[in-house]
Amino acid sequence: MTDRASTDLSSRDPDWWRQAVVYQIYPRSFADADGDGLGDLRGITRRLTHLAALGVDALWLSPFYPSELADGGYDVADPRDVDPRLGTLDDFDALAAEAHRLGLKVIVDIVPNHTSHRHAWFQEALRSGPGSPARDRYVFRDGRGPHGELPPTDWQSVFGGSAWQRVPDGQWYLHLFAPEQPDLNWENAEVRADVRTTLRFWSDRGVDGFRVDVAHALAKDLSDPLRDLGAPELSSEQALAEFAPGTHPFYDRDEVHEIYRDWRKILDAYTPPRMAVAEAWVPGARRALYARPDELGQAFNFEYLQAPWDADALRQVITDSLATARAAGASATWVLSNHDVIRHASRLVLPPDTDHDAWLLSGGRAPAVDEAAGLRRARAATLLMLALPGSAYLYQGEELGLPEVADLPTEVLQDPIWEQTGHVRKGRDGCRVPLPWTTDGPSYGFGPGGAWLPQPSGFARYAVEAQDGVEGSTLELYRTALKLRRKLLAGEELTWAEDTPAGVLRFDRGDGWRCVANLSGAPVPLPAGEVLLSSAPLDDGRLGPDTTVWLGR
Fold first, then answer.
1. DSSP structure string for 20-44
2. Is 545 helix (H, G, I), strand (E, B) or coil?
């Protein structure tokens, strides 16, 4: 591992994140060391050599903090500790030390919009009563109606239903997500100071960066009377479109940027500066604001994740994303899967008009998904993504080609979306099923016992053990692609070729190579150049459908 660490771009450049490959770990589903069926920090540490051999630059840990799992760990009871089911702070320190020894950077989630209802502050707020300083750390309001029996506004939770929950003394508190996740009041000085403390706490422990959850929702217009939205059934994206930029009552308000400029001063006080990336579900021009150098520096590009498997649509999204990042002085980000969406090995072969919630409710049978076709398209999409300038964020298990587990029995579901929507939306558990490491055992090597979500028998053929060293396997494709990417990547520009057949994307990289992706339904001639890597076998010099190739020039 010494050679890899010595060539790791993160050790050579304080701006390592600009073109890094970051691997997202959902801790409860990665590896279980103690056999209780739940992934833990010691399990992650034992498997870090897998990430080093894969060739990523950093790992991003989804929340591992104390939590009752009302929202998969994003309901945080203490942001400066480890859930005892997942380990201890000593276990975290050991994980970070081993990652750094292997040349890997460590990024952790920070959840600043809300806490768990079990957080000491919220429990104090419940005890203290209306008008107390403890309640001012959150968003409490009296209800409407003759007896305050109606919510203060028509605001809706992302997970379904009203965004307000009533407490025994009659007041209501705001929760943009689950009722177990009360929103913090970012106009409160104690709230701001506490999150600064959290940033320093993890930075002092050697964390190299932060992924900021719901970065666009911290600032809210809490002036009385609170404003109704008028159309509560709209999605957050639709709701944003109904307001002038920066003026929505609780999404993407202009005031949020002052918070991140304050954070950047803290992050820049470390050597090297700590990086940060925003989860901000806002249009591209607004997303660029979060990625400015004096704020977080980078923001997730969800337009790319949501783009259909269509050459024209993808070209437009890529072009716009690069322009947006350039305008912000940031680098672009690319992602195909994460802990909140259907895995792309399944999603990319669903018809464009598929209702994803309905598909999950059907157990993945309406329509049925051809796993082989899905894997072929996923491999092509990955090679296309890894050729783009900027940072690539991978989700655990995609290097194995894992499909979505759409047929989980409803009785095992953990995602609060299932209950909060009255069983209308099945939720996100299908992409969170624990990873298969071996071809047998009670949990395919995830741990010595079972797994907190059932793994399908088909997982055996996707296991690390089944693919390790096997020529042409998806795991070996990722390893080869990341090794090549490290050698090839230099600038942050690309040049589109205009003389391409319909359904084909081709671009040249200024550093001497090109990428060609055939998204059409027919083979196309392969341009001149040395074949460096292909997502699928070539057919007598022709590039088949759903295939991407890297060519030397």
1. -EEEEE-GGGT--SSSSSS--HHHH
2. coil
Eight-state DSSP code of residue 459: G
Tell me, what DSSP letter sits at residue 450? -
- C-alpha 220/C-alpha 373 separation (Å) is 45
Question: What amino acid occupies position 399?
Answer: E
> In 3D, which of 526, 494, 500 has the Cα closest to residue 513?
494
Six-digit token pair at 511? 């550093």
Strands 105-110 and 58-61: parallel
Distances (CA, A) of 408 to 264, 362, 371, 380, 411: 42, 10, 17, 27, 8
> In this structure, are residues 74 and 111 in contact, taking their beta carbons and an 8 Å threshold?
yes
Tell me, letter by letter, the H, E, C secondary structure of 83-128.
CCCCCCHHHHHHHHHHHHHCCCEEEEEECCCECCCCCHHHHHHHHH
In tens digits, the chain (553 residues) has pLDDT values of 334 433 444 445 889 999 999 999 999 999 999 999 999 999 999 999 999 999 999 999 999 999 999 999 999 999 999 999 999 999 999 999 999 999 999 999 999 999 999 999 999 999 999 999 999 999 999 999 999 999 999 999 988 889 999 999 999 999 999 999 999 999 999 999 999 999 999 999 999 999 999 999 999 999 999 999 987 666 666 777 788 999 999 999 999 999 999 999 999 999 999 999 999 989 888 999 999 999 999 999 989 999 999 999 999 999 999 999 998 999 999 999 999 999 999 999 999 999 999 999 999 999 999 999 999 999 999 999 999 999 999 999 999 999 999 999 999 999 988 988 899 999 999 999 999 999 999 999 999 999 999 999 999 999 999 999 999 999 999 999 999 999 998 788 999 999 899 999 999 998 789 999 999 999 999 999 999 999 999 988 899 999 999 999 8
- Residue 237's CB is within 10 A of a number of other CB atoms, namely 13
Q: Within 223-310, where are the H helices? A: 236-241, 256-267, 284-290, 302-306
Question: How buried is 224 (Cβ within 10 angstroms: 0-12 exposed, 13-18 middle, 19+ buried)?
Answer: exposed
Q: What amino acid is encoded at 482 in this protein?
A: L
Q: Using CA atoms, how far apart are residues 506 and 513, in angstroms rounded to an integer?
A: 11
pTM: 0.95
- How far apart CA 148 and CA 136 sit, in angstroms, is 19
522 burial type by CB count under 10 A (0-12 exposed, 13-18 middle, 19+ buried): exposed
Token pair listed for 17: 């994140």
